[in-house]
Write a structure and sequence with these properties.
Layout lengths: L6 E11 L4 E11 L2 E7 L8 E10 L3 E6 L19 H17 L2 E6 L7 H11 L6 E4 L34 H7 L12
Parallel strand pairs: 1-4, 5-6, 6-7
Antiparallel strand pairs: 1-2, 2-3
């Protein structure tokens, strides 16, 4: 016999309802198996439910940030050259606090639009999905998608300096190269340089 899913009841003094464009009062939110099951005034709270009393607070749905770079390492390092001084693993580990802070700020979903080190955002997303770390639901790009020398590309180096493959992963200079980059098109996921 399967165990009954844990139920959480949140008592919200005020609840922002974006569908109605209103702030509702004295609401109960029932969550079963991490999914909202019911919202309303005067809902019966099941026996054994965990109750979170926010009756003196305002509750709002999780926010979505459609332009983030959570997986590019420690925030505040605006110089892309700092990426060359670290391993990809270090950059991902430095990104773990970014995920937690973003979730704690109320953003339950983000669209991460690119990283200098290809696939770091995928690794961060997967760690969150497995429950290894705390963070928002992430929709990721895998790398910056750019032309050679465009925004997100590592530029300004002498022609004899070879950057690692993961700094070129999302570069494409034509619609044909974009198709070659796409794993769904049968390519290995990056083109040789």
């Amino acid at each position: 016999m399967a165990a009954a899913a844990q139920v959480t009841a949140i008592k919200a003094g005020r609840l922002v309802d974006p569908d109605r464009g209103a702030v509702l009062t004295d609401q109960v939110i029932l969550i079963r198996a991490n999914k909202v099951e019911a919202v309303g005034q005067g809902l019966a709270i099941p026996e054994g439910a965990t109750v979170i009393d926010l009756s003196r607070m305002t509750v709002l749905p999780g926010l979505i940030d459609c332009h983030t770079h959570l997986a590019d390492g420690a925030h505040g390092e605006g110089d892309p050259i700092s990426q060359l001084k670290k391993t990809a693993a270090r950059v991902v580990l430095e990104s773990v606090p970014n995920a937690r802070v973003t979730l704690e700020a109320g953003f339950t979903t983000v669209r991460d639009v690119g990283v200098y080190r290809a696939l770091n955002d995928v690794a961060l997303r997967d760690a969150i999905n497995r429950g290894d770390i705390i963070g928002p639901r992430m929709y990721v790009a895998g790398a910056y998608i750019t032309i050679t020398g465009g925004a997100g590309a590592m530029t300004g180096y002498a022609p004899d300096i070879q950057l690692p493959w993961d700094f070129h992963y999302g570069e494409a200079n034509s619609s044909w190269e974009v198709r070659l980059e796409s794993p769904s098109a049968g390519a290995p996921g990056r083109r040789p340089h």
